[in-house]
Structure formats: structure tokens, C-alpha cells
Write the C-alpha cells for this entry.
Amino acid sequence: MALRAPTGTTDLLPEQAHAWNSIRTVALATFGLYGYQPIETPVFEQLEVFVRGIGDATDVVGKEMFLTFSQHAVEKIASGEKPSLADTLALRPEQTAGVARAIAQHNLVPPEAATLKLVYAGSMFRHERPQKGRLREFHQIGAECIGSAEPSADAEVIIMLMRFFESLGIPQDAMRLLINSMGDDDCRPAYREQVRAYILAHTTELCDECVRRADTNPLRSFDCKNPKCQEIMTDAPAITDALCPSCAAHYTTVKSLLDDAAITYVEQPCLVRGLDYYTRTVFEVQVVDGLGAQNAIGGGGRYDKLIAEFGGKPTPGLGFAVGFERIVLALQAAGAEGYALPHPQVYIAAVDASTRAMAFSLANRLRDVGIATELDHQSRSLKSQFKQAGRSGALFVVIVGPDEMARGVVTLRNMQSSEEQTVPLDDLVEKVSTTI
Ligand code: AMP
């Protein structure tokens, strides 16, 4: 049987790969306005980075990791030894943990530093059940803003995220921004206890896993996919009623800054998001119609304890990630224009074999001055070269014929107006450059 890409992965064929590059370019440009600089971290990390950073009681780490071993570990296993934790590697399920590890490792936040703002883009891997908008290898663009505990940093990050989606062409009214505060070490432990007690009081109505979560990670039950559990958890105690005064004040300021910026949001006390590292502000952007269950196009939150978790100086921060595949679905659902592949500006047609070398040379001369140029490499007839030129979307066709060549000229045809003119060979580059 012919080999296929693994389940849950897709090839980004030229159109999709072009969309990915374009969306990444928009992200870098938009986030650049806010002072973000690029960072890239390894696609795989020591498993411990994710266990420590994300938490082993989360679905992402507890159930969805792609683990791998170094050759060294394989040799150890073969000789009956246990591989060490450092030999156990995992494909990244998200990149915040890797970025936080890099920040701690390279001490990227010296005491006098301004806020560190980082943007990344790449593949992430989660062993989930594939469905529309849910893959095992997918692409995220993310931003991390490190070094400020101020609510203005939260508001800035959220505003930037919404502006990014708008600049991609997703209309404001096609999106729903959900926000919540998850409290901090002062108020969350007591709140966890309240949720635990609530779960234990509803064990007959909740699924086994939610009941088990009462002891491991009760807040995760808010993320349960089971509709009955979702219904029961709607009536669970709300974190917003349990916030300590400083978390409540932080949350109030974030909301008022969003109000000032005319950003519409919905407060969602059940929003806890799937990862353990969040403190205080969390947010998610959903698409109102067209994406079914996988309607979250992006989300994130504050993680004031994460950098210290990797041995770095305790440094507050927050960030978000957006999913490329879901943005594409959202753009389709909104009827927005996609990212059409660029087409050549000029097609060079050789009338016969005697003019091919000249056609080849002209193509190179045009490309050397930055004009996208295409020509035939299959010795096709002039008629089929014209067909190719039409299909390629080229604005101009240069026809190189033996008689014209002998006179030192070529024919330049405008594909829109069908106008043709004779141009001296030596003037072609200049002529095309000034006409395009
Ligand atoms: P998370 O890292 O879970 O906060 O996810 C951030 C964004 O990544 C989500 O809002 C989705 O747009 C996208 N995403 C997460 N998991 C997947 C997946 N399995 N397949 C495709 N996109 C995903």
C-alpha cells in the first residue's frame, strides 16, 4: 500500500503552506508593533519540561504526549537498565513551557530589563482523537510577555490578540472573547477545595474521570467534554466569587482597560483552560459559527509562577497561542478571502527551439531585477505555452521568435488588454519594470 502521512497530520501543500507563511508574517508584523521579538525553541524537550511546566494532571501531559527516547536510552533499556528522566524526550504539545525553560536557562530577564516580549511559530503535537479542527500535529503562533504583573500587560496582550485576528480578516462579530480570573496562591487553594466538595457532592451525576479529578485536579472538571458534566459544573462555585482582594482588583482593572479599548468580552467563570500553569487572567477566543466543537481559535493567560518552576528568578508573565488550522477554518466560515498563491508577473514563450536559450536568458535577467518570471521547461508548442501562460496568471507574455530575435526585438503582450508591442531586447527589462 502507498505510504500516507500519519493519522492526525496533514501536509501543508503549497496553498496551505503559503497561508501559514502569510499568517505568520502578519503575526510578526502586528506583534512587532507591540515590541515582540522572535524566539525558536526545540521541537522536542526533556519530558520533565512539560511535566513541571504544564502539570501531569492535565490532559495535555497526562494523556496526549508523544514520547520518545534518545538512542542512549534505547541502549540502556537493551542492557536492562532504566533510562534516566533526562533521556526521556517529548515532542512539544505547546511552546510556552519550552520558552519559559529557555528564559530561565539563558537568564533572559535581568533585573533592570524592560518587559521581555517574545513571539514564536511552529508545529505542536498532541495525541488527541483527530477531527475537524483537531490534529495530532498542528501549528501554533504564540506570544509571551514576561516581566510584568501589571493588569495593563494583560489588557495589552488581549488587545493585540484581537487586533491580530481582525487584521487577518476575521470580523469582530464573528468572534467571542471569553475572560476569567483564576486567582493566585492566596485564593485558589480554598477555591479548589470548594470545587472538590462540589464534585464529591455530585458523584452520581458526574463521569468517573471528573470524580477522580476531585482529588487530583478538581478545576479540570470544568474542561470535561461530557455534556452532562458540563451542565453540572455550570452550577459549581464560581472562582470570581472566591478571588482575594488583590486578584479581584487586578481582574477589575484588566476589564476596565479592555472597556476603554472598546474590546467586547464575555466573563466566563467556568473558563479554566487546559493547562495547570495559569494564575489570574485567562482568556479564549472562539468563533461564533462554523467550527463546531473545536471553535477556539486562540487562548492564553497569566503564569506568574512558571519561570521560577524552571529555576529562573521568579518572574511574572502571560501569553497566548493561536491555532493556524482553526484560523483557516474561521476565515473560510467568515467568507474571508484566502491566501492565493502568488503568480508569475511575466511568462516567456519561445516560438521554437532556436529561441529557447534567449528565452531562458531573458527569464534570468527579469528575475535578477525582482520580477517573478516563468517559462516552459518541457519543450511544449507555442500554443501550449500560451495556455500555460494564461493558467499561470502572468500579467505579461514575452514572445521570443526567430525573426524578431534576428532583428534584436521581442513581442510584449499585455494579458489583460491583449495589446502587443515590439520591444528591443536590450530595453525589455527596463520596459517591464516600469510597466508592472
Ligand atoms: P492551547 O495550547 O490548548 O491553549 O491551544 C491554543 C490554540 O491552539 C487553540 O485555541 C486552538 O486554536 C489550537 N489547538 C489546540 N489544540 C489543537 C489541535 N489538537 N489541533 C488543532 N489546533 C489546536
Remarks:
- The pocket of adenosine monophosphate is lined by residues 94, 126, 128, 133-135, 138, 140, 274, 296-299, 321-323, 325-326 (CB under 6 Å).
- The CA atoms of residues 1 and 330 lie 35 Å apart.
- The first strand starts at residue 37 and ends at 38.
